Amino acid sequence: MGQLVAAPTDEPGEVAVELAVPAVAAGATVPFSVRGSQPGQELTLTLESAAARLRTAAVVELGSFTADADGLVEGAVRIPAATAPGAYTLSVVIDGESVASAQIAVTAAAGDPREGAPGAGGLPTTGAASMGPLAALALLLLLAGAAMRARRNGAGAA
After folding, report:
1. Residues with Cβ within 8 Å of residue 60, at least 6 apart in sequence
2. How confident is the model at residue 142, as a pLDDT?
3. Any residues with CB less than 8 A from the CB of 30 and at least 6 apart, and which?
4. What pTM was computed for the model?
5. Are 60 and 104 in contact (CB under 8 A)?
6. pLDDT tier at 18 (50, 70, 90 boundaries)?
7. What keywords is this UniProt entry annotated with (predicted)?
8. Which of 34, 36, 68, 70 is the most exposed place for a label (fewest CB within 10 A)?
9. Percentage helix, strand, coil, to 5, in the chain?
10. Average pLDDT, the chain
11. Distance (Å, rounded) from C-alpha 54 to C-alpha 51?
């Protein structure tokens, strides 16, 4: 199914999740497989930012699935388009408890204005780039004022 991005387990009956890719663009789908669950067992896949674990942040539910007769679930989940680029944990949740997880990197969606633009990475663009023309105008007005004063002072001395 592709590259294994979660550590396999040697324990029989232990749940393991495998992702087909180690990275995905926001808005794209991630093929996965979950092995080791009970036949007919309901499970949910969630996405949580690695940074979010350091503070209280929402966990995004990606979908619910039912294991087949062999305890296998294969499918794909869509990463929400609004997901910020960064490191994430995709977890398998059974009966409210995370039983397996895999790391995945989310990249900016194609055409995302945050990609490579000033303010990329979630920082706001402050408008400092537009200060050049304003500074030039202020300097021009200052010089014009100085020239007028010099002319006046020269005309009064004669």
Report:
1. 46, 47, 48, 80, 83
2. 73
3. 19, 20, 21, 24, 76, 77, 78, 79, 90, 104
4. 0.62
5. no
6. very high
7. Membrane, Transmembrane, Transmembrane helix
8. 70
9. 20, 35, 45
10. 79
11. 6
- Class (C level, CATH) for 16-107: mainly beta
Model confidence over 83-132: pLDDT tens digits? 999 999 999 999 999 999 999 999 998 765 555 444 444 445 555 555 56
Contacts 24+ apart (CB under 8 A), 97-102: 98/46, 99/15, 100/6, 100/14, 100/15, 100/16, 100/17, 100/34, 100/36, 101/6, 101/17, 102/5, 102/6, 102/17, 102/18, 102/19
Distance CA 25, CA 93 (A): 23
Question: What pLDDT score was predicted for residue 53?
Answer: 55
Rg over CA atoms, the chain: 28
- Tokens representing 154 are 């020269």
Give the span between the Cα atoms of 79 and 146, in whole angstroms: 61
| Residue 56 in tokens | 């209280």
Q: What single-letter DSSP state applies at residue 3?
A: -
Tokens 């010099």 correspond to 150
Q: Which two tokens stand for residue 106?
A: 């989310």
